[in-house]
Structure formats: structure tokens, C-alpha cells
Structure to design on (564 residues):
């Protein structure tokens, strides 16, 4: 199972999770943790990393926008719409075309007045940008906790009545969500796409961490406690209009709490002995397992995240897990567990179904 | 709450992809669009290993996806989707090259290895490889070995899937991979001097 400390170069090369770390930067905390606990592994991991990078060779990647454009091109050159299915690409182009015609009309009107033309070009550029983003809004109407999986794989645990709004796909350079109520976040590490949480008049910026927020509507205060990583909080305005100064920012580490006053935008920080704000099981859980029966692991995850995990108790009766899972989102935790016990899982309609061949 | 599509094809559960593939085979255009979108970037990257001609790769990809749409009904028994797409792109690139090779006088004997005369399996100078010896080592490997390593370690394909993509026997794939890894590791021992310098990379 998890005998990383004895790994040789070839073991690292064969380790899918390690490869994803090298190539995609996933599970960064997990591997930093391994390095910290096993410094003798550094040269071995280094060698494996170099070999993997040499296998990949020069990185020549397309942006999401470019891929999107290519796909549209392909979809448009398909022979006639012979089957009446949902055609998202058409609706979108129609809308853009309609906007263009409208904009041209306005442009022509304004052209006679010259001066206004410059300004309109700016707003036009913004509007013509292909937008097929749909906003999802989820409110936990149950009595218990509810798990929300974001499009980037991050997890949010909502307490009753808490609400989150997010796009069905995040932008290329940032991930933005809006929330109200009480929630716990586990954010997928991705330094090139910072993750922003807007709650009341406070904005929180992270790159990949876990933390709790309490932002109940009507309250004067928003509170945030960090479970892992580093979090940056500030007031929502970008600049103080009168003084022209940037708003004050506060950096918080593990076990630190900030209280944000919505009225005067002041922030007070303090250190807690435990990173608990909302009294959620997930805040206290360190996910450390030693030869724990897999069914117990699943039951713990169910309770911690309020998610249903379906599994065949007989099939996994011989499986145990020894691992420290840390603060990865649920999907990453499941990836990891499944790679260790040689199983597969499907996440659908908020429930996880595990298919396992069993363990020896 | 419903399933939210994730961008990287690797994160999506296999079962979901298989379902979408089946829907595509029965003529579902939204499933087809999603399959195209999920696989485009990695197929493109694979294409850049063969040729520096980006437009050629894009043309081949367009042909590939239009072709699979045309014959969608006959594709419902394709079990391994990604290997099938990789194999098709490879064949497309090779076929295009044969046509071009009439003019550029490339020998037709081992066409896979010489699709573009100037750059195949490019390892760029700007890549962050700290060990130049390792770069030399990978450059010195036969192209097919490099390709097998790429498919196994970067694209996570199995031996059988690589065999399908490259049109080889499974055993040949195993040999390529074993020999390739061995060569790269040997090279490392020569480059051991760099180690202390490199390990600073991890200490932040």
C-alpha cells in the first residue's frame, strides 16, 4: 500500500498520483507532506520527476478558448442538423450574431456622431466575447450538511440554509464563487487560477487550501477560520476612492481566525487552538488511517461530507487503508483511495458509487 | 444536484465517458461535442510530437472528428475510446505525410518515424530540464521508444492500448518501455553530480 518511504525511482514512475503531480500539479500538499516526512526521498523523487518531464518533452498546449473555437468549427462543419438534439453551440452563435447585428446598428448610428465611437468599441468587445457560462445556485434545504462539487473538483460543505453560486465552468485565469451562510471549503490547488469567495462585503482569495466561513445574512460580522494553507482576505472594493489606496489585506495561516466587520471594514485576527468555526465534523477531521477497514473509511467520509457512498460491503471486506489524506477535496480523496485499493468510482447526483474487485 | 462536467478528461469517471460515447454513437451531437472538447487538447499535444506543422495537426484533427461522426453508428463497439482516437490521429498524420512525401522524398519504409523531417518528438531547448545529459539521453532513444514512453507515462495508456495505437505486439511495447526506462535511468547515474543542486528545487 502506501510505503512511499521505500519507493525507488521506478515505483515513482509507475505511481499515477505522482505523475499527475509532476504533470498537472495536482495533490501538491500531499507530496510536500511526503517530502517533509521523508527527506531521503528527495533525490529519488527528483530523478523520477526529471525522467517524466523528459518523456513529455516540450509543452505545447492550447488554451481552453482555442479548443472551444476548434470544437465549434468542427460542429459547424457537420452535415445538416438531421437529429433534433440540444445544440448549445448553435444557440450561442445565434446570440452572438444577434448581438453583432444590434451592435453594428448602434455603431452605424453612433458613427454619425463620431465622438462616442471610441467608447462603444470597448463595451462591444466585452459583449461579443462568447459567453455560454451558466450560473448554478445551490441552497442546502436539508436538515443536515450537503456536499457541493465545484467544476474544478473543489468541495464545499454547506450547512443547512447556506447558499453558494458558481459558474458551470470557471474562467481561465480565476475561479469565483459567491456564498452566504456557513460553509467549509476544500479548494483544488492551482496557483495560476486563484480561487475567490465573495461573502457579504468580504472577499477571500486562496490558491488551494481549506477553510470555514460564516457569513449569515443580516450579521454585522463575517468570520473565517483556516484549516490548511494560506488565505488572503480583504474588503470587496478594489480601491479606496478618496485616498486611492489599495484596501487592507490580511494573510491568514492554519488555525488563524479573522473577524471582518461589514460596517467599518475592519479586520481582527486571532489564533485558535483548533481550526473549528462551524462545529462541522470535517473541520476536526485529519483523515489519518492505519490499516482501517475500507468500509469504515467510507462511513467516515459519508458522515464528514454528508455524501452518500454506495459500495458492496462483501467485495471490500478484505480492503484496508493506511494513509494520511489531508485537505484534498472529496474527488481527490476518492481518487487516492481508489488507486490504493484498486477500485473505481462514479460521482453522480451527489452520490458516489464504488466498484471494487476486492483486495487480497 | 446533478453531475457537473469537469474539464480534464482524466478526472471524469470512465463510466460517464462510456455513456457519452454510446450517446454519440446514436447521433447525439451534444455528446459528440463534449467528446471532441475533452480529447482535443491531448490529441493536439500528441500531434506536436510528430510534426511542427500546427496547421497540419489541426486539419488532421478536424478530419478525424468529422470522420468519426460520419461512421458513428459503426463505432458503438469501440471499447477503449482514447486509444482509438490516438490511433486514428496517428494514421491520419501518417497518411497526410505519405501524400506530402511524394514531394519531399521521405523514404516510405518507416513512415511513422519521419513524418516531418525537421522536428519529430521535439524536446525544446526552453523546456525546464535541468539535466542536459538526460535530454541527450531521451534524444538518443529511437522514436518509437519515445512514443511508447510518452503514451504510457504522460497519457496513462496501458500496454495493450499502446499496442493498438502504435500497431505493435504487446510484447514489443513492453520491450520498448523496459529498454527506454533503463536507458534514461543509466543516464541519470552519469548526471548524479547535479543532484545536490537539483534537490534545492523541492526545498521551498
Amino acid at each position: 500500500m502506501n510505503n512511499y518511504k521505500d519507493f525507488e525511482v521506478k515505483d515513482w514512475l509507475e505511481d499515477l498520483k505522482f505523475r499527475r503531480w509532476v504533470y498537472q500539479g495536482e495533490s501538491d500538499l500531499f507530496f510536500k507532506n511526503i517530502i517533509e516526512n521523508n527527506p531521503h526521498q528527495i533525490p529519488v523523487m527528483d530523478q523520477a520527476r526529471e525522467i517524466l518531464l523528459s518523456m513529455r518533452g516540450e509543452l505545447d498546449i492550447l488554451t481552453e478558448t482555442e479548443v472551444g473555437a476548434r470544437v465549434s468549427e468542427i460542429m459547424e462543419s457537420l452535415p445538416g442538423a438531421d437529429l433534433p438534439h440540444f445544440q448549445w453551440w448553435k444557440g450561442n452563435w445565434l446570440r452572438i450574431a444577434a448581438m453583432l447585428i444590434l451592435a453594428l446598428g448602434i455603431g452605424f448610428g453612433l458613427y454619425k456622431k463620431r465622438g462616442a465611437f471610441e467608447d462603444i468599441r470597448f463595451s462591444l468587445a466585452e459583449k461579443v466575447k462568447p459567453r455560454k457560462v451558466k450560473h448554478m445556485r445551490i441552497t442546502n434545504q436539508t436538515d443536515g450538511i450537503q456536499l457541493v462539487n465545484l467544476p474544478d473538483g473543489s468541495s464545499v460543505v454547506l450547512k443547512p440554509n447556506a447558499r453558494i453560486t458558481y459558474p458551470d465552468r470557471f474562467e481561465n485565469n480565476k475561479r469565483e464563487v459567491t456564498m452566504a451562510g456557513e460553509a467549509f471549503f476544500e479548494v483544488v490547488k492551482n496557483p495560476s487560477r486563484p480561487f475567490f469567495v465573495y461573502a457579504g462585503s468580504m472577499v477571500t482569495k486562496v490558491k488551494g487550501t481549506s477553510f470555514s466561513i460564516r457569513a449569515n445574512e443580516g450579521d454585522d460580522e463575517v468570520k473565517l477560520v483556516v484549516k490548511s494553507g494560506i488565505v488572503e482576505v480583504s474588503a470587496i472594493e478594489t480601491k479606496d476612492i478618496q485616498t486611492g489606496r489599495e484596501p487592507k489585506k490580511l494573510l491568514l495561516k492554519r488555525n488563524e481566525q479573522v473577524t471582518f466587520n461589514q460596517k467599518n471594514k475592519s479586520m481582527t485576527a486571532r489564533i485558535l487552538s483548533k481550526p473549528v468555526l462551524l462545529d462541522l465534523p470535517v473541520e476536526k477531521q485529519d483523515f489519518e488511517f492505519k490499516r482501517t477497514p475500507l468500509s469504515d473509511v467510507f462511513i467516515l467520509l459519508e458522515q464528514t461530507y454528508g455524501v452518500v457512498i454506495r459500495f458492496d460491503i462483501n467485495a471490500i471486506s478484505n480492503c484496508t487503508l493506511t494513509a494520511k489524506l489531508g485537505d484534498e477535496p472529496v474527488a481527490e480523496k476518492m481518487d487516492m483511495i481508489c488507486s490504493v485499493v484498486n477500485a473505481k468510482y462514479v460521482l453522480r447526483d451527489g452520490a458516489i458509487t464504488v466498484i471494487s474487485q476486492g483486495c487480497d | 444536484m446533478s453531475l457537473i462536467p469537469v474539464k480534464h478528461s482524466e478526472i471524469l469517471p470512465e463510466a460517464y465517458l462510456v455513456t457519452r460515447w454510446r450517446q454519440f454513437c446514436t447521433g447525439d451531437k451534444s455528446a459528440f461535442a463534449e467528446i471532441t472538447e475533452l480529447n482535443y487538447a491531448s490529441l493536439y499535444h500528441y500531434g506536436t510530437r510528430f510534426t511542427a506543422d500546427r496547421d497540419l495537426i489541426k486539419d488532421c484533427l478536424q478530419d478525424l472528428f468529422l470522420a468519426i461522426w460520419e461512421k458513428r453508428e459503426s463505432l458503438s463497439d469501440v471499447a477503449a475510446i482514447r486509444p482509438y482516437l490516438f490511433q486514428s490521429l496517428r494514421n491520419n498524420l501518417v497518411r497526410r505525410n505519405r501524400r506530402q512525401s511524394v514531394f519531399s522524398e521521405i523514404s516510405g519504409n518507416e513512415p511513422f518515424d519521419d513524418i516531418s523531417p525537421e522536428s519529430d518528438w521535439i524536446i525544446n531547448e526552453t523546456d525546464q530540464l535541468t539535466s542536459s545529459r538526460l535530454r541527450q539521453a531521451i534524444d538518443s532513444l529511437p522514436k518509437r521508444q519515445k512514443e511508447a514512453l510518452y503514451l504510457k507515462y504522460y497519457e496513462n495508456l496501458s500496454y495493450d492500448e499502446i499496442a493498438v495505437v502504435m500497431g505493435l505486439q504487446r510484447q514489443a511495447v513492453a520491450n520498448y518501455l523496459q529498454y527506454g526506462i533503463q536507458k534514461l535511468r543509466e543516464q541519470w547515474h552519469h548526471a548524479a553530480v547535479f543532484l545536490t543542486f537539483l534537490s534545492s528545487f523541492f526545498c521551498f
